[in-house]
Design brief:
By secondary structure, this protein is of the alpha+beta class. The chain has one domain. The protein has helices spanning 50-56, 69-76, 82-85; strands at residues 12-19, 27-34, 47-48. A 3-stranded antiparallel β-sheet has the order 1-2-3. The radius of gyration is 16 Å and the shape is globular.
């Protein structure tokens, strides 16, 4: 068989979850997991800020650009409260 092209695996994966009509009118949580994270690990241990996800994505992603800059900056710089509703301590 011909050699298959190499596939580059990402170093990890992320999730940003929010409920409500927009992040500033609801609750949100962000998680960043390394590819080596054990399947038995609790996602709660990997909660981060949206700012951290933006910083670590290449090319850099920008979330919530429709929000006013000051509001977006404030929300992105802190961990959201939705994780507690999802069962995280």
């Amino acid at each position: 068989m011909p050699a298959a092209p190499e596939v580059e695996l990402p170093s990890g994966y992320w999730k940003i979850i929010f409920i409500g009509s927009s992040p500033d009118k609801g609750e949100y949580a962000a998680f960043l997991l390394d590819q080596a994270t054990p399947k038995s690990a609790s996602f709660c241990d990997y909660q981060v800020t949206v700012e951290e996800i933006e910083r670590r994505t290449h090319p850099a992603l920008s979330f919530w650009s429709a929000l006013q800059a000051g509001i977006a900056r404030r929300l992105k710089s802190r961990k959201g409260s939705l994780a507690k509703e999802m069962g995280c301590p």
